[in-house]
Each structure stands twice: as C-alpha cells, then as structure tokens.
C-alpha cells in the first residue's frame, strides 16, 4: 500500500510558480471609492455560464468561478500538486487497481446536508455510468466498481492501471438526492452560490460553515462583460475591483495606478498545419515553415511581449513535463527555410490559405504577421476569415483546411494535452500520424512510475517537434489588474479564479 503523501511528494515540483508583478502608485479613484464595502470583490468574465450544474458545464469561464462552489476528493495547489480536499488521505493497492479514500468528517454541503461516502458513491456511479445511465465523462471508463464500506470510506476499483485517474478525483462531489443543481447549485466549497442574472452578473457569498480556512471576503460579484474596453472603463471608474484577462497593451497603460499580475496561462497558440495537405505531406516543408516564422514578432505584435515562446505543444507551466531541450529547435532562419523548400521541390514556393476564426482577434493578427513572414520564403499565403461555427465544423471537425491559427487551453493531466495528436483520435485535426508517438503515449497512460512517465511525455513532445507537426508559437500570459489595496490574487496552471485567498489591506 502506498500512502498519499509518498506518492505525491515529488509532484510539488510539477509546475513553476508564476511571478506576480506589482507596479505603480495607489490609484486615487480606488482609494476614494469607499462606497464599495471592502468585503465585496467585483470581477469580470467574458461569457455566460453554459450550465450551473458542474457535471454539465465545460466552458472555461464557468469552471473558473464555480470551482469555488464545488470540490472533489482531491484538489490542486497553485503549483499543480494534488492535495487532499474532501478526502483526508488515500491508499493505493500494490497492483495499482484499488484506491481507498478516507473522507473528512466535518464536511457539510451548502444545503446543510452532511457529506458521507454515500454522496461520493453516488457521484462516482454517475461519473462512470455504473448506475446504468450515460456516464458524465468517458474519462472514467477505467473505473470497474465503486463501494462505500462505511460512512467515511470510499473505494474505487479500476479495470487496468490508469495514471490519469487521480487527476479525475478533482471532479465535483454532489449531494445524493439533490435534484436542483441546474437552478440552485450546491457544493461544499468555500463560497456558496447566491444568484445569477443572465447578461449581468453571478453572485457568491462566503460559506461560514466551511471546514477549512474561511475566506477573507464576504461576497464576490462576477460581472459578465464581453467588451474588453468596457472592462478597462469599469476598473477605472471603480465599478470593478479586478479586471480579469486583460491584454498586454492595457496592462502597460494601467501599470502606474494598479497592481498588474501576469503568468503563463497554460495555453498554446499555434499555426496548425494539415499534414495531409499537398506540400505539408513533406516533413521538409513543415520544417521550413518552423524556420521561416519569427515568433518574437508575433509575441511583440499580438501580445505586447506578454507571452512565452514555444517549440512544443506543451506550455512551460508544465515545468516537470515540459521538454525544454527542444527550445534550440527551429531558431528563426530564413535561409535555412529556403534551402529546405528548395530541397523539397518548392524553391518557387506555393500558395497557402490560412483559415482563421474571425471572432478571435489575436489569431487574426498573428495570421497577418505570418503571411508577411512567409512571403520572405516565396510562400504566397492569404487569410480566409470564417465564423466560429464554420471553423469548428470544417477545420476542427473535418480537416477541410490547409493551415489555421488557433490556441488550445492546456489541461492538468499531460495525457489530455497529447491525446489529441494520436493517429486515430477524432480531435487530431492536424492529421499528424506517427506510430512511435502513439506507442509512447499509450505506454505513459498505464505507467505509474512518475519518472518514467515524465520521460515518455518528453519523448512524445520530441517526436512532434522533430517531425514539425505544426508551428507552435507561444503561450500568451494571463494578465490581471487589481486595485492597489486588494491582495492575494493567485494563479493556477488551469482554469480557476480562487476567491478564497483575496483580502483588502
């Protein structure tokens, strides 16, 4: 049997800590805005909740704020380390197939119902479809059986070793018998849901019955604001206390009056290449594009310098898994690009259409820079603007494209990031096919030795980079501005705005 603390001791190194950059003098408008009760924090998100039920929600904005309401057996620290949450600890059998969780005895749902193993059993039966209903997620397919030997013990049995299972144990535990999650969501987290007015705001209040450290603010109001300019105006006027996900140019303008925080957000922007499109069937052509594109120009021109240059489909936020040895690959070299194109029979270049979703301005601007750079190596690129729904259907769904600029949000589990590039994965829209990649990734999924698993994931990245699967550009920073007297903002390497650590001083 292996105790939790031994299995995850090494994971404290999983992600690097993000630096917090605080600049400038006190904002007079914020200082004078005493009508805002200091125990209330107002922040923005850009989209409506897709569902108030955590088992039905997938939208990043929704997950980022409602993760303050819901909790799992485990949780992730800001460094990415898996820690106890509803579970106090757990054991894993020697054959890696049986996980036994011991639950905390002082956890209460927001409706006053005391949490027991029956609620965990109910939740995992729903996750895996063991109750005869459609599974909440196919990711739980390795769960063969679940049981609750007593009120505070829960056991999950797997059909095969699955190294990704523990990351799934962050999934929200809901109370058995409660049927109003979609209208009045109930969890065990440090904040309780109060109200939601579509098109306006979501309100949360402090959970005074929380079993762990109590939040330092009484209430959080989350305003739904789709216009970035309106967000900046609201911050300046005192209508917001935190401006979430602002751009680099705005951050520079605000830096003298507000705290500015930035961190790699675990997202990869790339020029995706359809490996089945004529010229891109030749690895030399794909390599040529990697040499021809100056990523720094894109980082400066699109992200105002707030981004990390990439050479792999992993963000450096995954420090322990990130293959930094690949950073020397494909340094900007126009002459090298021309030589590779000539060798491949394209000395005079070729025509290329870059399809870009028109609703994502950063991708459009990146595509414009790429078009001008490719002209230096005689590639005649043009941009085709398309609506998001059409992009999802034709590009992502059917691979009816030549190249596209897009970004993918990273996951907490490395396999989730790499799996989209497996040869037969339906999400493999770049049509990258490599047997060595497939074999290595499959081996990593069942490997429970962390060091071996790390090596396998780094090898997968190496295979993709050396084969020039696409042009991985950068990880744009997540930038936040806050009033000077508001402190504690903490970044995570996944989608989460942690209300519980904020405080006024």
Automatic annotation (TrEMBL):
Keywords of the record, alphabetical order, are: Signal, Transport
Q: Solute-binding protein family domain: which residues?
A: 82-398
Q: Which GO terms describe its molecular function?
A: peptide transmembrane transporter activity
Keyword field contains Nucleus:
no
Gene3D superfamilies per the UniProt record, alphabetical: Dipeptide-binding Protein, Domain 3, Periplasmic binding protein-like II
Signal peptide, first to last residue: 1-19
What the entry lists under InterPro entries is as follows:
Peptide/Ni-bd, SBP_5, SBP_5_dom
Domain of life of the source: Bacteria
GO CC, one annotated term: outer membrane-bounded periplasmic space
Query: What processes in GO biological process is this protein linked to?
Result: peptide transport
> Which protein family is it in?
Belongs to the bacterial solute-binding protein 5 family.
Give the protein name, as stated in the record: ABC transporter substrate-binding protein
What is the organism field in this record? Treponema parvum
Taxonomic lineage from the root? Bacteria, Pseudomonadati, Spirochaetota, Spirochaetia, Spirochaetales
């Amino acid at each position: 049997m292996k105790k939790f603390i031994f299995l995850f001791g090494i994971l404290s190194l999983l992600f690097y800590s993000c630096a917090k950059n605080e600049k400038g003098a006190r904002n007079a408008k914020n200082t004078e805005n005493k009508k805002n009760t200091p125990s209330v924090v107002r922040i923005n998100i850009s989209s409506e909740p897709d569902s108030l039920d955590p088992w039905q929600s997938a939208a990043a904005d929704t997950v980022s704020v409602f993760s303050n309401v819901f909790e799992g057996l485990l949780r992730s620290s800001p460094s990415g380390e898996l820690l106890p949450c509803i579970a106090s600890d757990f054991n894993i059998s020697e054959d890696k197939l049986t996980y036994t969780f011991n639950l905390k005895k002082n956890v209460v749902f927001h409706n006053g119902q005391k949490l027991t193993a029956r609620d965990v059993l109910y939740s995992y039966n729903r996750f895996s479809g063991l109750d005869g209903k459609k599974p909440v997620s196919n990711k739980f397919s390795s769960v063969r059986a679940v049981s609750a030997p007593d009120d505070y013990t829960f056991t999950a049995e797997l059909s095969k070793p699955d190294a990704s299972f523990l990351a799934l144990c962050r999934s929200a535990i809901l109370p058995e018998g409660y049927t109003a999650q979609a209208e009045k969501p109930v969890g065990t987290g440090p904040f309780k849901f109060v109200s939601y007015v579509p098109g306006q705001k979501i309100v949360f209040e402090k959970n005074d019955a929380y079993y762990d450290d109590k939040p330092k603010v009484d209430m959080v109001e989350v305003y739904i604001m789709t216009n970035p300019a309106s967000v900046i105006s609201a911050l300046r006027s005192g209508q917001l206390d935190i401006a979430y996900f602002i751009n680099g140019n705005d951050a520079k303008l605000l830096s003298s009056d507000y705290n500015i925080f930035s961190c790699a957000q675990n997202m990869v922007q790339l020029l995706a290449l359809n490996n089945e499109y004529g010229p891109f069937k030749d690895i030399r052509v794909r390599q040529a594009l990697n040499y021809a594109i100056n990523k720094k120009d894109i980082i400066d021109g699109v992200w105002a310098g707030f981004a990390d240059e990439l050479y792999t489909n992993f963000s450096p936020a995954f420090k322990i898994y990130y293959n930094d040895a690949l950073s020397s690959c494909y340094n900007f070299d126009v002459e090298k690009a021309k030589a590779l194109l000539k060798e491949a029979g394209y000395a005079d270049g070729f025509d290329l259409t870059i399809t870009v979703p028109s609703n994502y301005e950063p991708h459009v601007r990146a595509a414009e820079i790429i078009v001008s750079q490719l002209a230096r190596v005689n590639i005649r690129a043009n941009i085709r603007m398309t609506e998001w729904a059409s992009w999802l259907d034709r590009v992502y769904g059917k691979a009816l494209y030549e190249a596209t600029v897009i970004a993918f949000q990273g996951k907490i589990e490395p396999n989730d990031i790499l799996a989209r590039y497996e040869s037969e994965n339906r999400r493999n829209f770049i049509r990258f096919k490599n047997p060595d990649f497939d074999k290595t990734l499959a081996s990593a999924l069942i490997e429970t030795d962390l060091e071996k698993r790390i090596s396998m994931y780094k090898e997968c990245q190496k295979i993709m980079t050396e084969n020039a699967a696409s042009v991985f550009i950068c990880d744009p920073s997540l930038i936040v501005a806050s009033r000077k007297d508001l402190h504690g903002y903490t970044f995570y390497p996944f989608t989460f705005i942690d209300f519980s650590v904020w405080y006024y001083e």
